[in-house]
Structure formats: C-alpha cells, structure tokens
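Appendix B: complex inputs.
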Amino acid sequence: MAEVLVYVDHVDGAVRKPTLELLTLARRIGEPVAVALGAGAEATAATLAEHGAVKVLTADAPEFADYLVVPKVDALQAAHAAVSPAAVLVPSSAEGKEIAARLAVRIESGIITDAVDLEAGDEGPVATQSVFAAAYTTKSRISKGTPVITVKPNSAPVEAAPAAGAVEALSVSFSEQATGTKVTSRTPRESTGRPELTEAAIVVSGGRGVNGAENFAIIEALADSLGAAVGASRAAVDAGWYPHSNQVGQTGKSVSPQLYVASGISGAIQHRAGMQTSKTIVAVNKDAEAPIFDLVDYGVVGDLFEVVPQLTEEVKSRKG
Amino acid sequence: MSLRIVVCVKYVPDATGDRHFAEDLTVDRDDVDGLLSELDEYAVEQALQIKEAADDDAEITVLTVGPEDAKDALRKALSMGADKAVHVEDDDLHGTDVMGTSLVLAKAVEETGYDLVIAGMASTDGTMGVLPAILAERLGVPQVTLLSEVSVEGGAGGVVKGRRDGDTASEQLEASLPAVVSVTDQSGEARYPSFKGIMAAKKKPVQSLDLDDLDIDAETVGLEGAWTKVESATERPARTAGTIVKDEGEGGKQLAAYLAEQKFI
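Resulting structure:
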C-alpha cells in the first residue's frame, strides 16, 4: 500500500488535534507516515501510532526553532525523498501552508490549500474546498507530481486506529536558504484555558453589538458554560475590544465547528466567509433584518445583554 | 543606491459582489467588478511607509499579472503613491495557477530589479496565502512573511525586520536584503489616494510585458500548464430557513431549549 506523508503540528511533543484528523484522511489514501520535527518530536510517536501512523520520522536541530519555515521545508523534502509517498498532507496553519507550498515548488508538484475533505480517486486524491466565502464547493486534484494538500481543522473525525508507529531518525542536511530568516525572539501566546478557535467544537462570537471590551465578559461566560472557544467579528477587533488572534472572518480565522453562536454580529460577507460552513448556527441580534438571520438554524431577535446571560444561566443549570 | 521596492498586487473580483465560476471553472472576471485586492493595499501602504522612513531614497514599482482590466489595480496603487508599474499581460496566462503565477512574478521581479518584494497576506479571491513563500523559494532569497509590523534598516544593502503573530507565539524576525516580505491587515490602515495622487498617477509609467519578454514558455502557464485541476464547482445550497423568535423575556431559555434538543447541552 502506498505511503502518505503527514506533517505533524505539535507543541513540545503534544500533538495538536488537526494532525490527528489528517491521519484519518491519510488512511483513506494509504499508510500514514508521520514527520515530526523539533523539540519533543520523538514524544509525539505514541499518540500518532494510536491514530494510524505506521512510521514516525523525527528530526531535531536548533535550526527548526531559530529560523523561519525553510529548515522544516528541508526536512519534509528529505522525508519525501526517503519515502516517495503517494501524497503529502499538511495542516492548514499559516506556517503549514508556507511549508507545503515551498515543498511543492521543490518537488515540482501541484498544491491544494485549505481542503475540507479528501477522498481517494482514480487519478489521485480528490480534495474538496469551500471557496468564495463558502458560496461554492469545489472538487480538485493535482495533475503534476506528488499531491501536496493542506487540510483545514475540523475536516475529519479523530479516529483510533492503532499502528506500529515505529520511530525512525530522519537525516536532514540544511540548504543554504535555511538560515535566511532569523527568529530573534519569540513570545508565547498566553493560554486562556479555552479550546483553540479553529479546533473547537463550539465557538461563541461577539461583534459590534457587544459594544465594549469589558462587555466581552458576557461572551466569555457563555463560552465557558459550553466549553467553547471565543471568537470576535472584525468590527469588534478593529474597535480594540478583543485580540486579532480571535477574529473570525475573511482576514481572520476560518472556523467550521459543530455549533457557532453569533452575538451582536450582523453577518457581513467578511464575517460569513469565516463561519458559514459551521454545522449549526444560532444568533442573537436586536436587528431582525440582520443578514446573520439568513444563515441561522435558530435565531433570537433581542438584546444580547438580556438574552446571553439568561442563556448562560440556563446552560449551567441544565448541565447541573 | 536607493532602495528598490517591488509590490506584487492582484486584481480580484469584488468580494462583496456575486462571485462565480466561468464555464472552464476559472474565476469569472467578466460579470463582477474588479478591484485592487483589499489585502494588497496594506502592502502598498507599507512600501510607502518604508520609503518615507528612508527619506524618500527608494523607488516603488507595483507589479501585477492579469488581464487588461488589471491596470485598474495598478492605477490605484500609483494613485496611493507608488512610482511606476509593470503589467504582465498575455492571453496565454488565462487560468494560470499559483505555481505559474509565481514563476511569472519571479521573472518579472528579476527583470525589474529589486532589493525588497512586498506582497499582501493572501488574495481575497484565491485566499491561498502561499504566493510570497513560493516567490521567496523561486528567487532564492529570505522569506519574511505575515508581518504585522515591518521596518528596513540600512537601505538597499541593509536588513528587514518585522513581527509575525502566529497561533502559538509572536516572533520577531530579521533577514538581510534582498528579501520577500508579506504583510497582514494588522500592519496599518492603507491611505486613501488624494486628488493630487490620482492626477499624478495618470502620468506615471506603466510598462507592459508579455511571456516572450520574460522568456517564459507558454506551455508552462495557463489552464493547460496548471499543476492542479478543478473538476467541479457547485453552488453551496442556501441554508434552510431556521426558526426565528422574538425575545419576550424568555429568549435565552428558548435558545437553551433548542441547544438541548440538538444535544449541545
């Protein structure tokens, strides 16, 4: 059976959920061979094996943390040369897409980014994408070289599929370009204790109607009662009420959770682009004419300062 | 020598318009108004700010690959303050994918001469966000991408520095010129063209290049030369109308009941 390279996104050995989703998709095409780089790479092996990795290729060197993107491209290229895979799958993070794209140039292959589904096809894997602010769904494949495909979070279930997960050291020689862009300092983002926005099963977002940074406490309280991530519309972010890292929309994060709760968000195209593929959408807005109500499965026309706290209390009491 | 900045921009269908596909499954550019991609305005803005910080000892060339109408995007950038423009236009380019476009841009950037290439974080139509990285790979120069803050020190032979805000950390980056930079929508509001700028733009030079000028084989670009193939594009069915209730004091409880029914609670 053909092997499929899966690039592992991990933080010091803790594998992030989108990588496990990639293993589910990789198993539809062939046998997943994972590539884990940097500090903690070997520690990823047990989790990856539980989810179907037949092999885990690992490499660690200071270059992976000290320089931007290119050292990882060098390593993934080395893995590609060692394995000759049927496809290369990479999580659709900003960095993941850049790594995948540079690899594709080097191995003279086409690239598809931001796939939301993947299936085997007669002429290679077929990727589903959601385009034009999710107004269209396309199916595409790569017609030259080894398909390089980046996949968005929440595109497949995480499945247990125990495999060998044998750890093998990957030998990497760094290219001249590897040390071109130095990371002179790094400040980790403070953890909020909430799920990561793009990975969360439930997202609770606030917009212009929240009307102030301090009022986001209401949105956060609802999110915490549901175990959800917090999102914000561009209007709320531009007003300085919530960090840009939480922005949902065309120029922020694109999310596809099981449940999306929009509070005080009108639903402009810019916002819809980032949340329209959510499975269930509910909204609270005082304007009955707001375009967000065209998308919802359930909507409440009312004052979010009344409705949202009542909802939070009700969720808490129902959860006991 | 003064700093040579090339800003890569894209002419895209208006994201607020009704965008759709043409029969050959390429983006339909005829039925929707086009404009300079909003995200590329930030790239033009940062180029202008870098030039201002260098006491105007810099020359900004704005570059696009696209059909005749793409000149509108160049004019907009020139009216914001860019000095000159290069337009790569060729019928054989129709349907070119990111690999082909990056090849053309790389050749055009080299032909123009550069110390710094600046691009937006992504286009608003294709939204891939990978072109700057590919361009750096093709040019063999450092990639300093997705910056929310950028500065150049030491002119043409100097360094570019910037801040990249990632999912898990914020990083300070540094590279020697020449380099390829991309900037995000957090890098700073783009200026509006002034009346004077709009008038001046009409007199600024726009150089036209075709594939022959860049010594690019037509077979390596266009729909036939693309390394990806779109097999189908279907309009997403409109979401079925949901239940809308007016809050009469029980709205939160009603919504909770719905969420419980859907097993979210």
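Chain A has two domains: 3-179, 202-319.
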